[in-house]
Structures are given as C-alpha cells and as structure tokens.
Amino acid sequence: MALLEILAFPHPVLKEKAKPLDGVNAAIEKLVQNMTDTMYHAPGVGLAANQVGVPKQILVLDVSSAEEAKNTLVIINPQIIELSKETETTEEACLSVPDFRAEVERAVRIVVAGKDLNGEDLEIDAEGFLARVLQHEIDHLNGMLYIDRIGKLKRQRYVRRRKKALAEKK
Ligand code: ZN
Known about the structure:
With about 170 residues, the chain is of the alpha+beta class. About 30% of the residues lie in helices and about 30% in strands. The protein starts with about 25 loop residues before the first helix and ends with a helix. The protein is globular, with a radius of gyration of 16 Å. The relative contact order is 0.18. It has a 5-stranded antiparallel beta sheet. A two-stranded antiparallel ribbon has the order 4-5. The structure holds zinc ion (ZN).
C-alpha cells in the first residue's frame, strides 16, 4: 500500500483543469490503486487525481457506509450527461479544504458517463449522496473547489483563517 500526499488549498494544482486520458497503462493503474488506498486511509468518500498532484481526469469514489462492503468506483474521463433542475443544499467537506464545512447547493440527480479502468464505457445514474459526491469530484477535475460555490463572505473568512493557520505553521 502506498499513500499519496493529499494537497490542500491553496495549492495551485487544485485550480488546474485536469486533462483527459487517452488510455490506461500500468502507471495509471498504480496511481489509481494508490489513490484508492489514500482515499480509504484519509478517510474520504472520493478523491480526484489533482488532489494528489496529477491533473488528469481520474476519480475514485466509495459512498458505502462503514458497515457495508467496500464498493470502489473508478471513473476515467467523467462527463456530465444530465443534471436535474431540482437541487438540494447540504453540508460538504473536502480533504483538500482542512478544518471547514459549508452548505452547498447541488443537483439532486446526475448522469455521468466515462470509462472504467478496463477502458469499458461506464454510465452512472445517481441520486442523493452519490450524486453530490460525483458533482464535488467532477468540480475538482475542472479546477474548482466547493468553497468556490459558497457565499463570498464565508469563503473569504475561511481563506483568511487558512492563511493564518499556514503562517503559524511556518
Ligand atoms: Zn474535495
């Protein structure tokens, strides 16, 4: 098992738009394995490759609860096919945004297409928590964090607090 460093705000790679993959080779397979280990270890329900410093369109997710068996989902080159007009607002957190949670409005339902690790087409029609996690992770691949979707004042307050915490660490 190899754990990767999860990069945190304001690391610039988190603002990069991830590039699509044109195929999966051994190095990508290894990266996905390490991302999966890192996600479970954190623990988190999803991880985008740019969170570990690789701006490529790769997501790993698992929204199963602690009592359930692991159910890892790997999506290469995810594309949003459909987003419901109906939305809901719930608290989110992010491994790349330490010490913060905030409410974010998201579509209730999403349809995502992409490829799996074997290069097979994948389509996921999700509602509720999985729909939210998919939107959060696809945002990462577009260089966006959930704090870009909250009120400006709330975001500024967090950014100030985070910068202060980082300055005190030095
Ligand atoms: Zn995140």
